[in-house]
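Input record (one chain):
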Amino acid sequence: MNHPLAHQFFVWTTSLLLVVTIGGLNSAATAADLVIPDTVVWEPNLEYSNSADQHLQVNLARPKTGDGPFPAIVLIHGGGFRAGNRESYNPLCLKLAERGYVAITVSYRLAPKFPFPAAVHDVKAAVRWLRANAAKYKVDVNRIGTTGGSAGGHLAQFLAVTAGVKQFEGDGGNPEQSSAVACVVNVYGPSDFTKSYGKSVDAAEVLPLFLGGNLEQERRKHIVASPLYWVTPESAPTLCIHGTDDKYVAHEQAVWLIDKLKAAEVPAELLTLKGAGHGFKGEDAAKAEAALFAYFDTMLKKK
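The corresponding structure, as predicted from the sequence alone:
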C-alpha cells in the first residue's frame, strides 16, 4: 500500500514543481539564470521574518527610475504547501517591475514540519514587511495586490479574505502594520478543502500533511483553512483564473469562491480556460498572464 502512494507522491511533487507559475516556469529559474532588464533594480535574498529561526526571505524587483510611490505585488509560490520555492516567480517579478510595480516573491514555512497556519502567518508577515519598508522601496501602501498559483493561490486568497483577523497574523514582525491587500489574482488555488477529497488526484496525500489529519480527523481545521468560509463584504476584489481540466484543484472550487464573493457584493471575476489543466502552457499561459497584468493595471494603477 505504501509503495504506490510513495510513487504518486513523487509524481505529484515533480509535476507541481513544473507548474507552480502561470507561465509553466519551473524552479530552475534561479537568480543566476535571470537576465535583469536595464530598467529594473533586482534585490534578492532580503530577510523579512525570522519565525521559528527560519530566516524567511523575499526577492524584490522594482523600477530603476521614477519617484513612486509604486503599486506593489506579493507573489506566492505553489507546491502543495510543502514544496516549491520563491525562485519560480523571479521572471514574473521582473516583468511586473518593468510594468511599474514593486514585486516580491516570498518564501514561507512548509508542511509537514510547519503545518497550517504557519504559511498564512508568513505571507501576512511579508505584506507587513513590505509596508514597513514602503519608503525605502517606494511602495504605495494603499496599492498592494497579491497573486499565486495552486497552494500559492490559496495563500494569496487567504490574504484577501482575512484582513484584520488577528488569529492569522502570527508573530513574524512589524505588528503595527496591516497585512491587508487591495486585490488578488488567484491562479487555480483551492477554496474549500472539505470538498477537495475525491475531486483531486492528490488531496488525500497532501491535505493531511498541511492540516494535521484527514477530513474525518480534522474537519474543523479543513473549514478554518478554507478561504471560502472567510468571505465577507470586506474581502478584497478577486480575479480567479482556472482551467476546466484541472485534476489537482477542480474548476468548481473557483466557481464557488466567485459566487460567494459576488453574493457578498465583492467585485469578483472568473477567467475560465477551457480544457486547461493545472499549470498553463502555450496560449493558455499567455492568456492568463495577459489577464493578470490587465487586472492589476485596472485595480492598482492610478487613473
